[in-house]
Design goal:
Layout lengths: L3 H7 L9 H29 L1 H5 L5 H30 L4 H9 L5 H4 L1 H23 L14 H39 L5 H17 L2 H8 L3 H25 L1 H22 L6
Helix pairs in contact: 2-4, 2-5, 2-8, 4-8, 7-11, 7-12, 8-9, 8-12, 9-11, 10-11, 11-12
């Protein structure tokens, strides 16, 4: 039996018929937001990897502008591809579709943003609870983050939260997870079964964790326990975000991710200075 009806019932606005130009309009909006988010990430990365940025011969503002311009183009393109593929497998951007294409009020009762935010907060709390257990086995820091006041750290974390909530979700969920399911649909000739969605969710979550390895390696080195910690803690959140993307659309995954990052990178530094979830 095809699962297409259940997909449509989950979030019909995300799989409603859309032209190439309509999807391009949504992708362009995401591209602009991605550019701003990528530029806002730079102060956080500079604090995390001070030795690397000490060697950069240009001001941080120039680095931020270049990073933002690149993200606007690259992530915007990936978002457009994800939107086009998503029509085949019941995935997409229902909130933006409602605002920019249908010009209607989003179906908030179906999207349930409060629940998405709470799920993100719960994922962050789980990470904070597990981190001390794993951190006991971590090696000494090779390159500690730059020392800063808790307020500065929290502010940089707040800016970085937009990158996680927007850019990472567009790349890993809207594009990558959708691509995996689109390929499965092409091979099967019909909508993939539920287990295929779970496989795509886990695969994207593992790659989400792998994407954080360079930063972790800069701090601790690439020891097995560092790899395990990074994949485990980020993977927990990635599974939650992937489920939300499947059931509610990319915006609810973004909201959960942003909420989780606010806990990890804003609340945690204020309440426990020096912590590194």
């Amino acid at each position: 039996m095809s699962t297409a009806p259940s997909m449509a019932a989950a979030h019909p606005a995300s799989i409603a018929p859309a032209t190439t130009l309509q999807d391009l309009k949504i992708a362009a909006a995401w591209g602009v937001l991605s550019g701003l988010a990528a530029a806002a990430l730079i102060p956080y990365v500079a604090q995390l990897m001070p030795e690397v940025f000490a060697k950069v011969p240009v001001p941080l503002a120039v680095v931020a502008a270049a990073q933002g311009a690149q993200a606007m183009v690259v992530v915007g393109l990936l978002a457009w591809l994800g939107l086009r593929m998503g029509h085949r497998v019941g995935l997409g951007s229902p909130l933006m579709h409602a605002w920019l294409v249908r010009r209607q009020r989003p179906d908030w009762a179906r999207l349930r943003p409060v629940q998405a935010a709470l799920l993100g907060i719960a994922a962050a709390v789980a990470i904070l609870a597990l981190a001390p257990l794993v951190d006991r086995a971590l090696p000494p820091m090779l390159h500690p983050p730059a020392t800063a006041g808790s307020g500065t750290t929290a502010f940089n974390g707040f800016l970085a939260s937009f990158y996680g909530g927007i850019v990472e979700e567009l790349m890993l969920r809207l594009f990558l997870m959708t691509l995996l399911l689109w390929l499965a649909a092409r091979l099967r000739g019909r909508t993939p079964p539920a287990w295929a969605y779970w496989c795509a969710i886990v695969a994207a979550a593992l790659l989400f964790g792998a994407g954080h390895l360079p930063a972790a390696a800069q701090v601790w080195g690439l020891e097995p326990v560092v790899v395990l910690r990074t994949l485990l803690l980020n993977g927990i959140a990635g599974v939650a975000f992937g489920w939300l993307y499947w059931k509610r659309g990319i915006e609810m995954a973004m909201l959960a991710h942003f909420s989780a990052d606010l806990v990890l990178h804003v609340a945690a530094p204020l309440l426990a200075p020096g912590s590194m979830p």
